[in-house]
Amino acid sequence: MDPKNLRYAKTHEWASLEGNICTLGITKFAVEQLTDVVYIELPEVGDHVFVGDSFGEIESVKAVSDLYSPVNGEVIEINEKLIDDPTKISGDPYGKGWMVKIKVEPGSSLDSLMTLKQYEEQIASEEH
Amino acid sequence: MSYVLNTPDEQRAMLKQIGAGSIGDLFNSIPEALRLKRPLNIPPALTEIDLTRHLQELSSRSRSAEDAVCFLGGGSYDHFIPSVVDAVAGRSEFYTAYTPYQAEASQGSLQAFFEFQTLICQLTGLDVANASLYDGGSAVAEAVLMAITATNRHGRVLIAQTVHPDYRATLNTYLANLEATPVTLPTPHGFLSPEDLKKAVDDNTPCVVVQHPNFLGCLEEMDDLARVTRARGALLIVSFDPISLGLLKQPGQYGADIAIAEGQCLGNPMVFGGPYLGILACRQEFVRKMPGRLVGQTVDRNGKRCWVLTLQTREQHIRREKATSNICTNQGLFALRAAVYLAALGPQGLKETAALCAQKAHYAAEQLTRAGCKLKFNRPFFKEFTVFGPKDPASTLSRLLKAGYHGGLHLGRWYPSLTDCITIAVTEKRTHAEIDGLVAAMKAEST
């Protein structure tokens, strides 16, 4: 995934919409903040996710964070490889580190999420 | 680090170093109006001779298991404590060890807790155990909180009436402000009927809690209860008697998800109610929901085996409001004692201990029945059993005490329908003569 084409949530998830399939992951910034990722808890295929609700958890040596869904929909695929090796998230957060694929309602959009530029502005201001 | 008072010369030198005139000067930042200007209203210090005499006088007011033959149970028992337990636990490195958050300074403690965890897994047949909790009662509450988080169900927590009343009261306190509500299932026949449980469990039930053997001494129908519980996707939580596992099936064998216990019986004294030892073990899938300290084995950068606190992101000082529990301690000294006890006895020793308890308890029950008491429940039992028969158990027990016997527990204290009953516990320490003596004394009471 090219970060330039993704949309971003305030809570550091990225989202990519193709047709009615939305892929979710977390950003490089989030990964750097977490440091060594040791564990991830993902939903099961068939689970329903809702905007703003947690769909899973990511755990590092120093913290545990919820993963928040920016869309409503049904989980159709999860990245099982992450469960065996959560460090794939740190290595390639926009590619091999993808987490879940959600089937969304037709006509759903990611317009309410931030562009890359807007997200970069947010993290710049957070760092101060 | 030696704990020795500072001499007046040392105090003067320290005060001089920081430029203070007196110790009083160190409190100058406290407003004048708030400072106490008189001595504290406490009696003067005693000499060591007088203090020792005073403490001996206080302790002589108690009648311990040394002063009268102990048939008390209900979670705290007069089991044998081999002297090796005191010898190891009494070493100052263990006795006054600090909290193990600096692994490099705590390898002795951490190894001891790791051994304890391993022994508990071997004992219960479950995958993981933590480094201990406060006591059997809070362990029940922690297990329930785990089940609520693990199942994400906030419905009725079903708990058998035969679970220790104090454990149930503790659970009520922990759940008081949560959505999940504790519901006590009646046990009129001294055990939880699997049929009754089947009617009570639903798809919102996070867990079912039973005690086996239970507070009345009776064994529960664990296989059936496990089946009924799991059929609705709820977790089975069992509060077990560690000594009983020398004879009975392990929680891991009959399908418990979480097993908890009061570990006082493993090398720890009765000490008037505490401190005690909470034990918690569970299946692997719940490891990240476990409360408390978890010790893991690893290697240092030189490849040497060593131990650390692990999976610390479960704990509340990191996970905060998402933690299962707010506990961030363990009962280190008592866990060590339990580990020494289990290592000293070994599987064979534990089996023999359990066999002796069972044999002696059944002998006592048989003799009491012959002497006119009746067993209240028609259920198998391990080392405790419930009788009814003596009129007014409360005064019977107080007369038995005068005759030299802690005769048992008056169930009327907790169960309004059992005011005519006493629960009697018989451990491996009770001799033939002691049991016969109790029987004779009880017989004298009923004539």
Explain what this protein looks like in three dimensions.
- The complex is a heterodimer of chains A (128) and B (447).
- Chain A is 22% helix and 34% strand.
- Chain A has helices at residues 28-34, 80-84, 87-91, 116-126, and strands spanning 7-8, 13-18, 21-26, 37-41, 48-49, 54-60, 64-68, 73-78, 100-103.
- The longest helix of chain A has 11 residues, at 116-126.
- By secondary structure, chain B is α/β, with parallel strands linked by helices.
- Chain B is built from 13 helices and 15 strands.
- In chain B, the strands form four sheets. Chain B has a seven-stranded mixed β-sheet with strand order 2-8-7-6-5-3-4, with helices on both faces.
- In chain B, helix 9 (222-231) links the parallel strand 5 and strand 6.
- Chain B is globular and about 80 Å long.
Superfamily (CATH H level) name of chain A: RNA polymerase II/Efflux pump adaptor protein, barrel-sandwich hybrid domain
The overall number of domains of chain A is 1
Cα radius of gyration of chain B in angstroms:
25 Å
Order of helices and strands of chain A: EEEHEEEEEHHEH
The first-level CATH class of chain A is given as Mainly Beta
Tally of separate helices of chain A? 4
Describe the strand arrangement of the main beta sheet of chain A, using strand numbers. 1-2-3-9-8-5
Spans where pLDDT lies below 50 across 5 or more residues of chain B: none
CATH class of the largest domain in chain B: Alpha Beta
**Can you write the helix and strand succession of chain B as a string?**
HHEHHHEHEHEHEHEEEEEHHEEHEEEH
Oligomer state of the chains in this structure = heterodimer
Shape of chain B: globular
Tell how many strands the DSSP assignment of chain A holds. 9
Instruction: Report the strand count of chain B.
Output: 15
Give the CATH H-level superfamily of the largest domain in chain B.
Answer: Type I PLP-dependent aspartate aminotransferase-like (Major domain)
**Which secondary-structure class do the elements of chain B indicate?**
alpha/beta
